[in-house]
Amino acid sequence: MPKTAIIPPGTGVPIAPFVPGTLADGVLYVSGTLPFDKDNNVVHVGDATAQTRHVLTIIKGVVEAAGGTMDDVTFNMIMLKDWADYGKINAVYAEFFPGVKPARYCIQCGLVKPDALVEIASIAHVGKKA
User: NCBIfam families, per this entry (predicted)?
Assistant: First the structure.
């Protein structure tokens, strides 16, 4: 099956061998997205609200670069460093998904950089583009 790498303008070089998104047969798979700037530095250290907003804004950019909208997101995988931030993450999440919510799971785990408080990966159905 053909697949297309989705790399929005201004995307930095990833810290591992992956692309921000892969589109195959109308399904977009968005890589785990951390609160990084284009140089892979953690932004908004200590602020789960701002980090979540940053992550979801990046995801939105990947979805839009693939020709979709956040309404096309059907599944999210959320990883958080501390359950104490769960409410803050959910408040921002609700802003990005105001209507019918995507399916999701949420786990607590260690993230690739200690100052990162949240990571989100997504799946969206954006139509057959590849």
Answer: RutC
